[in-house]
Amino acid sequence: MELDKVRNFCIIAHVDHGKSTLADRLLEYTGTISEREKRDQLLDTLDIERERGITIKMQAVRMFYKAKDGNTYKLHLIDTPGHVDFSYEVSRALAACEGALLLIDASQGIEAQTVANFWKAVEQDLTIIPVINKIDLPSADIDRVKKQIEEILGLDPEEAILASAKEGIGIEEILEAIVNRIPPPKGDPDKPLKAIIFDSYYDPYIGAVAFVRLFDGELKPGDEIMLMSTGKTYEVTEVGAQTPKITKFEKLSAGDVGYIAASIKDVRDIRIGDTITHKKKPVKEPVPGFQPAKPMVYAGIYPAEDTTYEELRDALEKYAINDAAITYEPESSPALGMGFRVGFLGLLHMEIVQERLEREYGVKIITTAPNVIYRVKKKFTGEVIEVRNPMDFPDNAGLIEHVEEPYVLITIITPKDYVGSIIQLCQEKRGIQKNMTYLDTNTVYLEYEMPLA
């Protein structure tokens, strides 16, 4: 299919604004899934995602839509997590797209994560289509949301599409907007292969699988590829896409989004944001702008009940194959024995890791209280050490010149009735107020610098 008939887009939203439901409706409307296959939150494949009603891992689905202009378009929907702990996954998904549906709940209005994801999309230069969702709710206030779209995001409120993913309202308008407003991908199938990895998972039969977006070139089984950050090379065994079932194809070419398997034994070799190219004819420059995921919160995980240290180690190794964002190293505690110091993106990520270790890998664990990294500068030597574990903190305070702790800039969007309580809470947590403005008569925007601890 020619590139001008391809559209790559994602859906970005605050938690619970109806993202996974909209993805389901798009799949149904385009006939990608049949009535028989219908189930809520089709793209949330982990049990824990459906239970908590959140999206953790991304999925990238291919569907075909026959537009009103008579042409059939190939659409790649990249689903993204909405929770702040997983914002690094959002940035990778955005790099694989040309456009984004910005979903806003008609009763809740614009919330903090909406703003954060909006700016990420603007940084990636994406075409943004605002969609006001849940217009069927009795508490929906469409005029207020349109005003917020104009005042907070600076977008034209007339361009916003009114929809209810639950009731199936506005779905055709959304698909028409994707086709007409989002530009087709640029790319040349004859240039050297250049593809970005935006997600990965482990399949026990074919090894680690990478989800990729091809910018240039073609990719087919038998090709020898190189991962640019490590220089490691592999032979491609299969390529394909999710439709939403995993479906093999003969090749992927420029502009496509799909998966590749290349008998890669360890998912840690597949670095999210890395560039894939051909071994024999490599591209000169990798895709810019990606950093490895950085843990923000650390906790000790120890075996409990009849679980052994070895069983916990095996479970962590297997789990890390599916989640490149965690780091772990062995540690011991006088009270709990041998265990691991594990780094997470945030507290929700930590809860999910604990739950998946117990549920999917059958180990019983004890988790210590979480803490952040402190940076200690020593007197006399000037040496700076990073302390991830309270036990490693220097005993002699006289040898410490100063201690630094991680600070975060937080944005809070709240109805004005709660401002007093929120300011009090922020001050109790050692917050420093940086900004306070009224977005409209009822909504306040606060900015605070606060210690991450």
How would you describe this protein?
The protein has helices spanning 19-29, 47-52, 87-95, 112-123, 142-151, 171-181, 309-322, 347-360, 419-428, and strands at 6-13, 60-66, 72-79, 99-105, 127-133, 161-162, 194-203, 207-216, 218-219, 224-227, 233-235, 238-242, 246-249, 252-253, 257-264, 275-278, 297-303, 327-333, 337-344, 365-367, 374-378, 384-387, 400-404, 407-415, 432-438, 443-451. By secondary structure, the protein is α+β, with helices and mostly antiparallel strands. It folds into 5 domains: 3-181, P-loop containing nucleotide triphosphate hydrolases (Rossmann fold, 3-Layer(aba) Sandwich), CATH 3.40.50.300; 194-278, Elongation Factor Tu (Ef-tu), domain 3, CATH 2.40.30.10; 297-367, Elongation Factor G (Translational Gtpase), domain 3 (Alpha-Beta Plaits, 2-Layer Sandwich), CATH 3.30.70.870; 374-404, no CATH class; 407-451, Alpha-Beta Plaits (2-Layer Sandwich). An 8-stranded antiparallel beta sheet has the order 11-10-16-7-8-15-12-13. Strand 7 (194-203) and strand 8 form a beta hairpin. It is globular, with a radius of gyration of 24 Å. The termini are far apart. The mean pLDDT is 85.
Keyphrases for this structure?
5 domains; eight-stranded antiparallel β-sheet; six-stranded mixed β-sheet; 453 residues; Alpha-Beta Plaits; alpha+beta; Rossmann fold; Elongation Factor Tu (Ef-tu), domain 3; globular; single chain
Topology summary:
Blueprint: E1 6-13, H1 19-29, H2 47-52, E2 60-66, E3 72-79, H3 87-95, E4 99-105, H4 112-123, E5 127-133, H5 142-151, E6 161-162, H6 171-181, E7 194-203, E8 207-216, E9 218-219, E10 224-227, E11 233-235, E12 238-242, E13 246-249, E14 252-253, E15 257-264, E16 275-278, E17 297-303, H7 309-322, E18 327-333, E19 337-344, H8 347-360, E20 365-367, E21 374-378, E22 384-387, E23 400-404, E24 407-415, H9 419-428, E25 432-438, E26 443-451
Parallel strand pairs: 1-3, 1-4, 4-5, 5-6
Antiparallel strand pairs: 2-3, 7-8, 7-16, 8-15, 9-14, 10-11, 10-16, 12-13, 12-15, 17-19, 17-20, 18-19, 21-22, 21-23, 24-26, 25-26
